[in-house]
Amino acid sequence: MIDLCRGMILPLLPFDDEPRWLIALISDTGMRLAEAAGLLSEDLRLDTETPHINLCEHAQRTLKTSSSQRKIPLVGMSLWAAKRIKEQNTDFAFPKYCRQAKCNSISASAALNKRLKPRVPIGCVIHSFRHSLRDGLRAVECPADIIDAIGGWTTEGVGHQYGKGHSIEVMHNWLKRIEK
User: Fold this and answer.
1) Each residue of 95-112: pLDDT tens digit?
2) What DSSP assignment string belongs to the chain?
3) What are the C-alpha distances in Å from 66 to residues 55, 73, 107, 161, 163?
4) Which CATH number does the domain 2-177 belong to among 3.40.47.10, 1.10.443.10, 2.40.50.1020, 1.20.1600.10?
5) Most exposed of 82, 85, 97, 122 (fewest Cβ within 10 Å)?
């Protein structure tokens, strides 16, 4: 599915606009749709050695679990999308779907799935990109705990609660391996 996004879907989308940026952002980060749609522009950190998203809870959008709060390196299409978002100079990364009061990820899901439907296999939806990123990382033999850290999945076991976790550079190196 990741290859579909990069090779087929994004070039076929008619506009260089918020929905296209949102699809691109999700495809290379594995974020949940609500996480991505609820980003603030300031969450996109492009002026660092390793460009990344500082994913944290906001008043208009909560996070699913405590492990959902994380830093996600930007590579490939997600880096392109982040740059386009920052150029807009708005408070919210996706003002079409998120405002001061709340984030409307249901509306975003409907709009994105409508755009994707004629371009993807039956049964594929915007959430499929999240699972595809996990599959892509497995294909390059990325350790499961690093996959979990990138995607914000909870890793089982007491030992995973200790320490600072994986550095952004380590996660970036693994994401670069599946970048097209």
Assistant:
1) 989 887 788 888 899 999
2) -HHHIIIIIHHHSS-SSHHHHHHHHHHHH---HHHHHT-BGGGEE-SSSS-EEEE--BTTB--SSGGG-EEEE--HHHHHHHHHHHHT--SBS-TTTB-SS-B-HHHHHHHHHHHHGGGS-TT--TTHHHHHHHHHHHHTT--HHHHHHHHTPPPPSGGGGSS----HHHHHHHHHHT--
3) 11, 19, 25, 11, 15
4) 1.10.443.10
5) 122
Task: Identify the residue whose tokens are 């749709």.
Answer: 33
